[in-house]
Each structure stands twice: as structure tokens, then as C-alpha cells.
Amino acid sequence: MSSIAKIWPWVLTVPFLLVASVASPSSATTPPSKYAIKEWPTNLRRDLRGATVKVVLPENAPDQPWDDALMAKFSDLTGIRVEIVRPSNDTTVVLAGYLRAFKNGSADADVYAIDIVWPGILSDYAQDLRPMADDLRDMPPTLIQNDTVKGKLVAIPYFTEVSLLYYRRDLLRKYHFPAPPVTWNELEHQAQTIQDGERATGNKSFWGYLWQGAASEALTCNALEWQISQGGGPLIEPDGTLGIQQDRFVEAMERARRWIGTVSPPDTTSQLEDDSLRNWKQGNAAFMRNWPYAYLESMSRESVVRDQVGVTVLPMGEGPGGRHADILGGFQLMVSKTSKNKSAAIELVKFLTSPQIQRVNAIARGYAPTRPALYYDAAVLKANPFFGTLRDVLLEGAVTRPSTAAGQRYDAISEAYFTAVRQILTGQQGATVAVEELEKELQRIVAR
What is the CATH number of the domain that holds 107? Predict the structure, then answer.
């Protein structure tokens, strides 16, 4: 999110202040007609008029006007006032802020958007949403199971994501590649060939492949894709034991290290999804790893690559155990256990996760729905043609992060992982030494 101009004041620390500017929560405002919401659920309560709900939404930059529009429509329908709090788009920073606020008692929001890997971490602070179960019967059981911790329904799936490979259809034709790459070796070859050709024509800012290497959950996702696709095993097995296959891990990480400064920008190790998307929309890359939201952004009027974009699964590794390993992502909506407006907060969650609003979000924003029937909807498929071809991956075949096995230790495990990977990428450590030290650190975390 799978990227904010505002940060909530109740979790501010000096390091957090360095990430973005500071502003108070803003009430949802009447949106321009471009962002008008034209369908909505009709079963919302009307007896809560005058209540106020504060919702925390880590957003990508293009999401803000749509979120304003959704909250304005909800207020029109219910009379419930909504305040939107906009934290950083770095999920690692966001989670640290959530935990800090909950632990010191300063968390005063009612609804929190939480990453798909956070239910186990935040379950102690969540209201049990099992009373909403009847409204969720059509959602994939895997998503509901992900959000259920020790019998408590911690959150409701808002949208799902799966990491994807974006490619320039026009450039594949220009350089005589009949199809996008199936393996990482093919990606390297195509990226280098196209990059060399485009630079020869004068575009010195052109790169072969854009991805996210900042020290964050984004890098955890990227690195797990390399590791698992190469047969490097999972970080943690379902029984809590370590699953890394060292030799394959080293191969995958050394390959990614070679990309930096050759087919990927030197500053990749400081980039998040919006950074990649910005360069991509300017026409400065042949391939990009990103989430579904990037498709509609790629097709926007200001995008240089409009109508030249293809989408497919991420490449697979070579050799035994090689496979595609697109990471499952997405956000859920959690109601705080300490909310003073639980009924109004639950109505907001009910509104945002309804089939009607999921359809709006899919068509307008490229959000992959958590309601499977929408993957057969003609308007949704027209806006997101790749939803049809990637339907099985989006709903069943994606790779999950080890958040269920790790529980409340997941954040520490992810941080140890992306720190080790980034040290490899920046040349601070060799891959063999880094994986040996990583395994020792993971053993310490798991044993706590």
C-alpha cells in the first residue's frame, strides 16, 4: 500500500519526524466530481448520526482523493463524521507508530488499516469482529483465517494485493522479444538489452528494472520473492522452525546485488513503491515490480507509458525448486478495542469492505477485491484486464509471509531479514556471511 503527506501527532518521535511532514488529522472533505462515488451499500445504519470516527489510512499518494471521496459519501449516507489520519507510506514505520501508541495508551483512533501480516501483532488491541461474519461468507477462507487469531476476528479484509511484473509492450516489440521474461535470467537479459538500446538513442536516465530496496517491509517482500522463487525455502516453516536453504538464498541475493547500478538505479536501496512508479510513468524503465494499484496509475493521462503496459507474474528461479513466487499483500480494517465509538466504527468497516465499495475501488483504483465474484465483473475486468489472467494467483496461488507462524514476533523477524538483505545489496556483507548471521538472529527471535 500493498505508499503520505500527513502524520498523526500521537505517535511522533524524532526519527519519525524525519520521515515526513507533520499535520493534524483532517476531516473528509467534499470531493471533486472526478472522484464521485456512484454506488454504495444500502444496509447501513442511520441511527448513529452525529458520531465521529477517526480512521488511520496509510495510503499511496494517488489514494488520497479517493479516500476523501469515500469518507464523504459515508458521512452523507449515515451522518457519521469521519476524520482521516494519514501516516507514512512506509509500513515498517507505520507499524512502529501503531505499537508505540497502543502500548503507551495514546492511540485514539477508532479504525486502523493494517497490513496483511499484522493481525498476530496487533490482536491484543483489536475488537473482535466475529459479529460481522455473516457479511463475509463470500470471502476466501484463507483471508479470514489470516485475520483470525486465537478465535478472534482481528480485522476484515479490505483489499488484497499480489506483487506483479510490469513491462513495456512497445519495447518488447522494438527489441524483438516475443514475450515477457519467465525466469530471472531472462529478465536480466531483456532488461540489459532494452536499457542499452534506449540509452544509445539518448535516454541516459533509462533503466532495465525497477524494484524496492529501502530498509522496510517492501524489501522483505522483494527478497522473499527472489528467495522462494529460487528454491531457497521459506523464512519460517509453519511449525516455527527455520526454512532457509542457504545455497539457494545466496544465489538469489547475489543475483539481486548484481542488478544495482547495472540494470537497476544505484539508489534502489532507498526506494519504495511510489519511487519506482514515478520513474516508470516517466518512461524510464523496461520492467517494474509493483502492486496492482500501479496499473491504473500507469494508464493515467500524465503517464508517458499509457497504453503500452503489460502485466504478468514475477519471474521464476532456475534449477530445482524454481517457481513463481508472487507475494500476497493487502490491507485489513481493524476496530480498536478502546474505541469509544465502536458501533460507528463497525459501520465504516462494513461500508468500506462491502461488495459495492470494493467494486468502486477495483474500477477506479486498481484495488484487487476480497470478494471473488468481482473478478468476473465486466467493468472490473475492463479497468484491470490482468485480473482475469491472474485470478488464480490473486486468490489462491500467491506466497504468504510467515506472519501466522511468527505471531507477535513477525515484525522483529522481518526487520532482521530486510536488514541482512540490505547489507548484501549495499556491499556491507557478503551473502554467505549475511545468511549465516541472519539464521542465528532468527533463532534468537524465534526462541524468545
Answer: 3.40.190.10
What percent of the residues of the chain are helix, what percent strand, and what percent coil, each to the nearest 5? Answer: 50, 15, 35
Cell representation of residue 437: 548471521
Closest CA to 226 of 191, 189, 257, 272: 257
Is the same domain home to 321 and 355?
no
The single-letter code of the amino acid at 189 is H
Residue 155 lies in a domain: yes
| Cβ contact 289:264 at 8 Å | no
Provide the domain limits for residue 377.
Answer: 9-162+329-391
485514539: which residue's cell?
108
- Looking at the fold, whether 157 and 171 belong to one and the same domain comes out as no
User: Which residues are registered as beta bridge partners of 111?
Assistant: 55, 335
Is the pTM here over 0.85, yes or no? no
Residue 396 lies in a domain: no
Give the bridge partners for 126, in sequence order. 336
| Residue-by-residue pLDDT tens, the chain, 448 positions | 443 222 222 222 222 222 222 233 445 555 567 899 999 999 999 999 999 999 999 887 788 999 999 999 999 999 999 999 999 778 889 999 999 999 999 999 999 999 999 999 999 999 999 999 888 999 988 889 889 988 999 999 999 989 999 999 999 999 999 999 999 999 999 999 999 999 999 999 999 999 999 999 999 999 999 999 999 999 998 888 899 999 999 999 999 999 999 999 999 999 999 999 999 999 999 999 999 889 989 999 999 999 999 999 999 998 888 999 999 999 999 999 999 999 999 999 999 999 999 999 999 999 999 999 999 999 999 999 988 877 777 766 788 898 878 888 999 999 999 999 999 999 999 999 999 999 999 999 998 8
* Residue 2 counted as domain residue: no
Contact 264, 210 (CB under 8 A): yes
